[in-house]
Design a protein that fits this description.
Number of helices: 9
Shape: flat
Radius of gyration: 30 Å
Strand order of the largest sheet: 1-4
Helix content: 40-55%
Order of helices and strands: HHHHHHHHEEEHE
Largest sheet: 2 strands, parallel
Distance between the termini: 83 Å
Low-confidence stretches: 162-168, 175-210
Strand content: 5-15%
Length: 229
């Protein structure tokens, strides 16, 4: 078994000598074809990147949100394998995307479905497509290196959307409080402890709260009270 792994023979091909549908394999072929360890470099970098990403987002980590991206990283940075029949794991991000798109009206979900259908046809009919263009029908497993990037590209495009523009001149809503009108006759005696009272008039609505409670809450949240105009 050890000899079969280390080198190929007339009756056995070492896994190191298989042409694989991986970026790590083609990196090895370009840098050091005889050094199998080169194929593990993308995985090592991916592990470091994922750990750093998790550490940065550990307080708000959400597995349903993060898992699809982790599946793509694991497939694209794999040091060995990721054959076309292993890519069933890509159903994790594809199904997650399907759930998201099912909640959104519009034609985009149909375009995404058509794109994934085209990828499936490309995988199933790869031999026929190659024979059509080259006259040879045989297609090695290494030729399917395009499948994972194609699935990722469609996923990325489908998740992209128009983000609302940010008004940098306006104070962040979580860091500021609207001016409170304490000029109303509604005083602290009219406000129950621990709560706020709404006093209406013909001209405005005056919000009266216990000043000490408001200031304590603002100090706790790190916000500042803006004086009334």
């Amino acid at each position: 078994a050890g000899a079969g792994w280390q080198s190929s023979t007339s009756i056995n091909v070492s896994p190191k000598d298989w042409a694989q549908p991986l970026a790590s394999y083609w990196l090895r072929m370009a840098v050091a074809p005889q050094t199998f360890a080169v194929q593990f470099l993308p995985m090592a970098l991916a592990v470091v990147g994922v750990v750093a990403y998790w550490w940065r987002n550990r307080d708000r980590w959400d597995w349903p949100t993060e898992l699809p991206g982790l599946v793509f990283v694991s497939v694209l940075a794999a040091p060995y394998g990721a054959w076309v029949f292993d890519l069933v794991v890509l159903l994790v991000p594809v199904l997650a995307l399907a759930v998201k798109l099912a909640e959104r009206p519009g034609a985009k979900r149909y375009l995404v479905a058509a794109a994934y259908a085209a990828i499936t046809v490309g995988v199933v009919s790869a031999g026929a497509i190659r024979e059509w263009f080259t006259g040879r029908s045989h297609t090695g497993f290494h030729a399917y290196i395009w499948v994972s990037p194609a699935v990722l590209a469609v996923y990325w495009w489908a998740r992209a959307g128009k983000r609302p523009s940010l008004d940098l001149t306006a104070p962040p809503p979580s860091r500021s409080v609207a001016a409170l009108d304490f000029r109303s006759p509604a005083s602290t005696s009219e406000v129950p402890p621990g709560g706020c009272g709404i006093k209406s008039s013909t001209t405005d609505f005056a919000l009266a709260c216990r000043t000490s409670e408001v200031e304590a809450g603002l100090r706790k949240s790190g916000s500042r009270l803006r004086p009334p105009p």
